[in-house]
Amino acid sequence: MGWADHYRRRDALDAVLRDARRDPSAPLIVDPDVFGSVHELLLALDHRWQNKLTARMEAAALDGQVDEDRVTARLAADEPVLRAVLDAHLPFDSYRTVGMTS
Q1: Is residue 22 within 8 Å of residue 10, measured between CB atoms?
Q2: pLDDT-derived band at 98, boundaries 50, 70, 90
Q3: Fewest CB within 10 angstroms: 46, 48, 61, 83, which?
Q4: Domain ranges of the chain
Q5: Residues 44-65: pLDDT tens digits?
Q6: At 31, is the secondary structure helix, strand, or coil?
Q7: Would you tell me how many other CB atoms lie within 10 Å of the CB of residue 17?
Q8: List of residues 6+ apart from 95 with CB closer than 8 A
Q9: 67-88 confidence digits (pLDDT tens)
C-alpha cells in the first residue's frame, strides 16, 4: 500500500467515525472504493484501536508496571466513538480475550 492508499483509508475511517458520533450502533457506510465490505472496515477500525492501545501500553511500560485496565479505560475515554463503534459492531468475544473490554 502506498501513501495515497494509506491516506484514503485513513480519511475513510475518519469519515465513518464522524458519522458514527450520532449513533455508533447504526449501520456503517462503507466506501466501496476503499473497503470491500463492512467486515474489512471493522478490521481496519480494530487495527486503529490496537495500534493506539499498543502505543499507550508501551509508553506506560516505560514507567514500570502497566495497569492494562487503566490504560484501556483512558484510551476509551479519549476515543469514545471508536470504542463505541467497535463495541456495537464486533462480537464481544472477538476482543475480550485480549483485554479489550469497555
Answers
A1: no
A2: very low
A3: 61
A4: 3-89
A5: 999 999 999 999 999 999 989 8
A6: coil
A7: 18
A8: 46, 86, 101
A9: 999 999 999 999 999 999 999 9
